Amino acid sequence: MTNTVRALGALTVAVLLPLGACSDVLTLDVEAPGRIADADLNTMDAVSGLVVGMSYDLTQAVDGYLQDVAMAGGNLWHGGSYDFGTLPRGLFYNDPEDWDGEWGSLQQARFVAENGIRRIRGIIPDQFERSRDVARAYLLGGFANRILGELQCESVIDGGPEVPYTEHFNRADSLFSRAIQVGQAAGQSGIVSAAYGGRASVRAWLGDWNGAVSDAQQVPIDFVYEAIFSSAITNDLQFETNGRFEFTVFSTIWEDYPDDPRVPWQIVYDDAGEVAKGQDGQTPFYQQLKYLDQGADVPLTKGTEMLMIRAEAALRSGQLGAMTDLLNQARAHYGMDALDVPASDAEAWPLFRVERSATLWLEGRRLWDLRRWQEQGGLAPDPFAQGRDLCFPISDEERRSNENLS
Question: From the centroid of its chain, how far is CA 374?
Fold first, then answer.
């Protein structure tokens, strides 16, 4: 069963009673309520709404960076009319102001979740440790921090001084741990599985591969936890590859994988039978088919990713047979043929990189993988990473407004 992040915007519906043709109804005397006092939100009835707001902010942040990271990580190529500057060529530091919006959305998602948790504790102190809403709030805060850790070269917390990107992984570890604890007390198995998945990834990124494997083993292979898109917030990547022809699979490594069910795409032809062109009128348009409508959801963690974490741990310890078995479990889930055991680490690493990247295609994760494989010596880094920026800078807006940054 798919477990999801519900990202529903707060909608105010005004219902007007029909006035008919009554000539004596000339005015409607309505007293303006004014602003809602902050203290008036400190009620039990407001708790679920606070968590819905956290969910909405996280989905909005995912929507904001997904296109940038798809290009930066080489999962799609830009063949459109929008000006993305040097980003498609992997040069992010040339224009740090281009990251202002994404930085702001991600930090907002983190801040709203972390501070919302503190607020909820004051509202429902007696129920706090067994509340489904609290468990979900911890989970959302964990994902917001994990994303920041994977994308940022360095970071800032609430206007403070510069901190290493690993600060977000440490915060995520703590938040996911609390989501597991409270989720178990609340009987929320979906939240617990999602939190184990999130924590498995950040523990791997912090170098605790044993802890990562232990957590990954708690997540069923068919489990998926997603950021949910809807009429309140639509999947812009889907629109820009279906409603428009802005991004293409052409000129990416996935051109060589036309039949991989994890990386679904097709060549689009025009009325003359020629390969259609992107919005720039020049680039061949190969259309992604992973996200098929504007309500298409984006996975935040899933069981097949957990198999990739376990497979990488086996590869790092030289257990090529165990690695291949785990990869083949994931491939079987997608209806794919099994792989043979590679003869050496030199063969295994390129194989593994493709398997993990295909499993997480267009989920905003490959840029981080390229970075960590590049930075960790002896792991046969991906050639695509050479000469490219592999993380995003603190935004220009943050540097101009934060007195703690030089």
Answer: 21
Is residue 10 classed as helix, strand or coil in its secondary structure?
Answer: coil
DSSP secondary-structure letter at 284? B
For residues 206 and 208, give the distance between their C-alpha atoms in angstroms, rounded to a whole number. Answer: 6
Determine contact, residues 82/253, Cβ cutoff 8 Å: no
b/e code 271-295 from CB counts within 10 Å (16+ = b): eeeeebbbbeeebbbbbbebbeebe
pLDDT number for residue 117: 98
d(CA 387, CA 406): 27
The rounded distance, in Å, linking the Cα atoms of 283 and 247 is 9
Q: How far apart are CA 374 and CA 382, in angstroms?
A: 7
Residue 13 has pLDDT above 90, yes or no: no
**Confidence category of residue 298, pLDDT binned at 50, 70, 90:** very high
3-state secondary structure of 21: coil
Residue 33 is predicted with a pLDDT of 55
Q: Assess whether pLDDT exceeds 80 at residue 219.
A: yes
Strand spans (E) along 169-310? 224-227, 247-248, 265-267, 286-288, 298-302
Provide the 8-state DSSP code for 243.
I
Tell me whether residue 101 is exposed, middle or buried, using C-beta atoms within 10 angstroms of its C-beta: 0 to 12, 13 to 18, 19 or more. Answer: middle
pLDDT mean over 181-204: 98
Interatomic CA distance for residues 191 and 4, integer angstroms:
9
Burial of 41 (0-12, 13-18, 19+ CB in 10 A): middle
Work out the pLDDT band at 4, boundaries 50, 70, 90.
very low
| Separation of alpha carbons 390 and 406, rounded Å | 23
The enclosing H or E element of 155 equals: strand 154-156
- Arithmetic mean of pLDDT, 223-248: 96
- As given in the structure block, the two tokens for residue 28 are 């409607």
| C-alpha–C-alpha distance, residues 204 and 146, integer Å | 12
Three-class SS state of 203: helix
